[in-house]
Amino acid sequence: MKNKSFKRYTITAALPYANGPLHIGHLAGCYIPSDIYVRYLRSNEKDVAFVCGSDEHGVAITIKARKEGISPQEVVDRYHEMMKQSFKEFGISFDHYSRTSAKIHHETASGFFRDLYEKGEFLEQTTQQYFDEEAGQFLADRYIEGTCPKCGNEGAYGDQCEKCGSSLSPTELINPKSKLSGSTPVLKETKHWFLDLARYTDFLKNWILVEHESDWKNNVLGQCRSWLEAGEGLQARSMTRDMDWGIPVPVEGAEGKVLYVWFDAPIGYISSTKEWAAEKGIDWEPYWKDEDTKLVHFIGKDNIVFHCIIFPAILKTHGGYVLPDNVPANEFLNLEGDKISTSRNWAVWLHEYLQEFPGKQDVLRYVLTANAPETKDNDFTWKDFQSRNNSELVAIFGNFVNRAVVLTHKFFEGKVPTVAALEQIDREVLEELKAFPEKIAASIERYRFREALSFVMDFARMGNKYLADTEPWKTIKTDPERTGTVLNIALNIAANLAIVAEPFLPFTAAKIFGMFNLQGLNWQDAGTSDLLKGDAKIQPAELLFDKVEDNVVEAQVNKLLEAKKQNELANAQAAPMKDIITYDDFAKLDMRVVQVLEAEPMPKSKKLLKLTIDTGLGKRTVLSGVAEHFNPEDLVGKQVVMLINLAPRKMMGIDSEGMILMAEDRDGSLKLLQPHQSLANGATIS
Questions:
Q1: Judging by DSSP bridges, how do beta strands 654-656 and 649-651 pair with one another?
Q2: Residue 438 backbone phi and psi in degrees, to 5
Q3: Kind of pairing, strands 144-147 and 174-178?
Q4: What pLDDT sits at residue 2?
Q5: DSSP 174-197
Q6: Counting beta carbons within 10 angstroms of the beta carbon of residue 685, is it exposed (0 to 12), middle (13 to 18) or buried (19 or more)?
Q7: Do the Cβ atoms of 649 and 551 come closer than 8 Å?
Q8: Which of these, 127, 132, 154, lies nearest to 143 by C-alpha position?
Q9: Would you tell me how many other CB atoms lie within 10 Å of the CB of residue 549?
Q10: Do the Cβ atoms of 314 and 288 come closer than 8 Å?
């Protein structure tokens, strides 16, 4: 709500799904933007509750558990701890990080459902849903696979075809199969509770399209308008599912059913706030029920409907809760020109980045903010990561701070020099210094974080230019007093830079504050030119950023390409079957277990090895095209399978008397066929 002053702020970031690690798409989508905003609010001494938690219910969890042969609880326990630790190391400064398997969340979500149920807000409907008779259970959409009716992809899910992107219903699939048993499911009646979203259309249209027309992002308004106005408008949506993993539906006749994950997940923000408030010994309700509270949801665009349509409808119906003041959803981040995919391992995983780039949290925070998909999908490349680090963070930001500190130690023994007479260039720079914090703040408050960060870098550029124009390394010889004035101003620019950069680069800001022995500064201090007083002692320069070399980037790109290759191999189809033969054809083949006695390379050949074989019937010479797959010495002594009645074939002047049989793997590599126990040479295979 524009132009309103708020007493407190409740900031939420989308609950990450606990079926895998965090990747850069998650960070760019909502976690870095929300952290920037919250750090800015705290720097302005606002009362903030920044909450999140692991989303631990839903079919993706059960699929992961079944695939790994473990329980759903083991899956969510593993990834909850991994994500929580990764967030902490990366500097995402949640006030509280909870989980939807927590008792307080089950109680809160169940309470919401019961409240709506007792008010008669649900439509109780019996529908037909696919049922796996062999497994004895109803199938969630993701447990059904079949052929997409629109593009012919044979691996489409019951809710979506990932090849063509079409949204589907399970009954649209051609030749549907259960992922549990592989059998063809049957349609069976089941009862569910639906929220009649159409009833909220007028309220939602006015609240979103009228009241927030001028302050919500266009991509959010556009998607909401599509849901509200396209086709037949909002439809009733089931708030329950036939599953055994989740929050049990708390009404009679709902045995074997749980709350729809998108009913319970947003309520996780409330239960997380309850946990946080209880730990602090304060009342949680003002953060959700007081009209003087500003509620902001940071999400990716795939969650817009849940946070702008479904969750507000639930809050409105329940009553007593504030509605979100803004939902600044980002678009998607791609990776090296391709869509990020966890199933294909096409991702930059946060926990791996933290291990492989220690101390470089701010570099990734910077790159993902500078390239944030705020209004359209954007692409992350490792070359851009390298370029922004080397040409912006190292050459501009780090270079300016380093020069100011190093020159102060060199010329003034690490003491901040005092200011003497100001020249015109000094007055102009100090005027710019006053203006930057307000300009950066205005962009942050409009959720334009890319723009705000560009102003931060312009601030650093101004400092660099000031040093270049005033040349204190030259004036020290002729006018030490003038040099002292320049360095005092430069150091105060750097101190101001630390304040306004802290929401974006918290680790870097902490280093600068440490070098300057500064504590307790906030946004209100920014824009002043006396943060560092004359004669104050500063610490020696500390490296803020270092160059990322070509070999580092190449290693990361190769890692991605290798993951892509392994994924393609894992999904490669076996070679088609050859023409049918008769038993008599097969009986003509004389295959024996034989032993390699000698092996040596064939001169003038890259592919052939000359093998001496004990067939059990005598020794033979075989030329085998396996030199690119095996070292000769590795074959000696091995028992292998040989077709011994193949007609001799002369190659490179030598008769090859048979063929060693091999299996070709999906990657084209050859593997020996060997008995699992030693046999007499010449043993027949039939």
A1: antiparallel
A2: -65, -40
A3: antiparallel
A4: 57
A5: EEEEETTTSSPPEEEEEEEEEE-G
A6: middle
A7: no
A8: 132
A9: 11
A10: no
Q: Collect all residues with Cβ–Cβ distance below 8 Å to 295 and sequence separation of at least 6.
A: 9, 10, 12, 288, 322, 323, 324, 325
Q: Which residue has the tokens 């509200």?
A: 228
| Confidence band for 20, pLDDT divided at 50, 70 and 90 | very high
**Is the pLDDT at 167 greater than 80, yes or no?**
no
Q: Is 35 helix (H, G, I), strand (E, B) or coil?
A: helix
Secondary structure E strands in 42-82? 47-54
Assess contact for 100 and 54: CB atoms under 8 A: yes
Answering whether pTM is above 0.85, one says yes
DSSP 509-569: HHHHHHHHT--S--GGGTT-S-SS-TT-B-PPP-----PPPHHHHHHHHHHHHHHHHHHHH
Q: Per this entry, what is the length of the chain?
A: 686
Q: Bridge-partner residues for 23, per DSSP? A: 349
How sure is the predictor about 192, in pLDDT bands with cuts at 50, 70 and 90? very high
Which candidate, 608, 681, 592, places its Cα nearest to that of 645? Answer: 592
The residue written with tokens 């070999």 in the block is: 551
Q: Residue 23 carries which DSSP code?
A: B
Both tokens assigned to 52: 């999140």
Rounded to whole angstroms, the Cα distance separating 299 from 33 reads 9
Query: Cα–Cα distances in Å, from 86 out to 21, 90, 265, 349, 544?
Result: 9, 6, 21, 10, 22
Q: What tokens appear for 180 in the block?
A: 């549990």
* 307 secondary structure, DSSP code: I
Q: Which of 141, 161, 322, 341 is nearest to 241 (CA)?
A: 141
**Count of other CB atoms within 10 angstroms of residue 366:** 26
> Are the C-beta atoms of residues 176 and 130 closer than 8 Å to each other?
yes
Neighbours of 301 (CB within 10 A): 18
> Edge-to-edge strands of the sheet including 96-99?
96-99, 47-54, 8-13, 293-298
**Residue by residue, what is the 3-state secondary structure of 552-584?**
HHHHHHHHHHHHHHHHHHHCCCCCCCCCCCCHH
> Do residues 471 and 479 make contact, with C-beta atoms less than 8 angstroms apart?
no
Tokens found for residue 468: 């270049």
Q: Give residue 452's identity as a one-letter amino acid code.
A: A
pLDDT in tens, 654-675: 999 999 999 988 788 899 999 9
Measured in degrees and rounded to the nearest 5, phi and psi for residue 147 equal -90, 130
Cβ atoms 313, 200 nearer than 8 A = yes
Cβ proximity of 294 and 47 under 8 Å: no
The DSSP letter of residue 602 is: P
Give 418's DSSP letter: P
DSSP per-residue letters across 363-393: HHHHHHHHT--SSS-EEE-HHHHHHHIIIII
Q: What is residue 402's three-state secondary structure?
A: helix
